[in-house]
Design a protein that fits this description.
By secondary structure, the chain is α+β, with helices and mostly antiparallel strands. The protein has two helices and two strands, in the order βαβα. Helix content is 29%, strand content 11%. The protein has a two-stranded antiparallel ribbon with strand order 1-2.
Length: 76
């Protein structure tokens, strides 16, 4: 079986596109996105880390801001 390892990605050798961590739909080029990063805390929060559509990330980023304020994080 021939395997094209020079172009990893989706079916047909096409490069795979990133998917939203929340809704799992493809993030199209140029579409507004947000990167969510929980650096500290419970592993359950770190499981939320990833790339999101901008609208999908808003509720999670609101929770992150609130947690950062409660922790007294700089810049919060």
């Amino acid at each position: 079986m021939f395997m094209d390892t020079a172009n990893p990605g989706g079916p047909g050798g096409e490069p795979s596109q990133p998917h939203c961590h929340s809704c799992q739909r493809v993030i199209s080029p140029g579409e507004p996105t947000a990167e969510v990063r929980f650096e500290e805390g419970d592993e359950r929060f770190r499981m939320l880390n990833g790339l999101y559509h901008d609208g999908c990330a808003r509720p999670i980023l609101s929770v992150k801001r609130a947690l950062d304020m409660l922790r007294g994080a700089p810049g919060a």
